[in-house]
Write a structure and sequence with these properties.
3 domains; Metallo-beta-lactamase, Chain A; Oxidized Rhodanese, domain 1; globular; five-stranded mixed β-sheet; alpha/beta; 26% helix; 456 residues
Length: 456
């Protein structure tokens, strides 16, 4: 039995995984996130010495911690030799082998997710192939998307992706475990993972690149691509510079009146409280984004990347976690934060409230007395929607506000209420009169009752 093990470090907020491969003494770290303290904790717990930090590709969905980790630990930082970066690194080419204790790591050129994408085959000293780190190439029952470089390269990269996944299947043992970076909620994945673990042999039975013809694969992959967060355009430029590690130092603590003054100047104040507490009492202009795994994607889509943020919550632990989550996508520009205890905004000149209702309440309001806004994605809207709904995906709302009538209250809904409360707070910030349809947690609602929507 091999003494080589792979430790997975999950980042649910971005749908990604990082890995520490080790033999009990030496370690290789694959695709680390920016908050490298999590990696350091694993290394300390197992008493490991890192020899190499490797990247499968220049990432588009997060700021890497690879450069900072390798620099801190005096380890080799390895990327494709053809990646154009502005720091010293160990450039790898197809077939290069790294040695780390009892481990061998072989670079495998697998373009598709990016033009220079590498996968890494993990071997022991006897040459047994134990696993393969596939980044954004072969995922669990799917593949990485191919349109992140630009639409002009989507089809070409999709063709490369098809053949790269097939190369892995042909050249790596069936029993080797597959360790992808994406696929667990990340928009870097064409579709989401169909399972939580896999082997190369298992992928041969259900991965679309391995069970479909090239023509079928291309049509399905390209035809199924959905929008991805606008912050993505800033990630690769940040990663080629060799970004610094996450700094957990809290920003300045603001007083209530300081936050109110900033709001009156147009500041972006992100209120992380649950939607019930927020909509009952909030400061005019604040955006409500609950602390959920999708917080970075939602804010990275809605908030201009260059803006400085103020965070509001009722718990410092929430503020700390939000700071960590946002740092992973490069939102480091935090002006400050505010701990808002219950009733903190009561009686303040900027205090506002948003009505919350359900679909039954909507049915009692005449069509001449309201606007209905569906902020779900296109495929959700097409699967069924309220008969009177205007459709504007929540992440398109800033650019499409003129499509939403201002004369009437705007009743906003999504699938669970998370996107709708962001949209409702954005509408309120923009001078609308929103009503949040939160049909899933009202007192007296029947648990599991489906929202009233009408197809067509």
């Amino acid at each position: 039995m091999s003494s080589i093990d792979v430790i997975t470090i999950e980042t649910p907020s971005l749908g990604d995984r990082s890995y520490v491969a080790h033999d009990g003494t030496k370690a290789v770290v694959v695709d680390p996130q920016r908050d490298i303290d999590r990696v350091l904790d694993v290394l300390h717990e197992h008493g490991l010495d890192v020899t190499h930090v490797v990247e499968t590709h220049i990432h588009n969905d997060y700021v890497t911690g690879g450069y900072a980790l390798a620099t801190m630990l005096d380890a080799a930082y390895c990327l494709n030799a053809d990646d154009e970066v502005r720091f010293d690194r160990s450039g790898l080419t197809d077939g290069d082998v790294l040695e780390s204790g009892l481990m061998r790591v072989r670079a495998l050129l697998t373009p598709g997710h990016t033009p220079t994408h590498l996968s890494y085959v993990l071997l022991d000293t006897e040459g047994n192939e134990l696993g393969v780190f596939t980044g954004g190439s072969m995922l669990f029952g799917t593949v990485g998307r191919t349109d992140l470089i630009g639409p002009h390269m989507t089809e070409e990269l999709a063709k490369h992706q098809f053949h790269s996944v097939r190369r892995i299947a042909a050249e790596v043992d069936d029993g080797a475990t597959v360790h992808p970076t994406h696929g667990f909620g990340s928009h870097c994945s064409a579709t989401q993972a169909t399972k939580q673990s896999s082997t190369v042999g298992t992928e041969k039975g259900d991965n679309p690149a391995l069970v479909k013809s090239e023509e079928e694969f291309l049509a399905e992959l390209i035809g199924g691509l959905t929008p991805y967060p606008t912050y993505y355009r800033h990630m690769a430029p940040a990663n080629v510079l060799g970004p610094e590690a996450f700094d957990a130092t809290p920003p300045r603590d603001f007083a209530l009146d300081e936050v109110a003054a900033l709001l009156q100047k147009g500041a972006w104040v992100i209120d992380l409280r649950n939607r019930r507490d927020f909509n009952a009492s909030f400061l005019a202009g604040a955006i409500n984004a609950e602390l959920r795994n999708d917080l970075p994607n939602y804010l990275g889509w809605m908030v201009p990347f260059e803006e400085h943020l103020v965070l509001v919550a009722d718990d410092t632990a929430v503020l700390d976690e939000a700071q960590r989550m946002l740092s992973r996508i490069g939102f480091d520009r935090l002006q400050g934060r505010l701990v808002a205890e219950a009733g903190a905004f009561a009686g303040h000149a900027l205090e506002r409230a948003t009505r919350i209702a359900n679909f039954d309440g909507l049915a009692l309001v005449g069509t001449a007395e309201r606007t209905v806004l569906d902020v779900r994605d296109a495929w959700e809207h097409e699967s069924g929607h309220h008969r009177d709904a205007i459709h504007v995906p929540f992440h398109e709302l800033p650019e499409r506000l003129d499509e939403v009538p201002r004369e009437l209250p705007v009743w906003v809904y999504c699938a669970t209420g998370a996107r709708a409360t962001i949209a409702a707070s954005f509408l309120a910030r923009s001078g609308f009169d929103p009503v949040l349809i939160d049909d899933f947690c009202l007192p007296g609602d029947v648990p599991g009752r489906e929202p009233v929507v009408t197809a067509g």
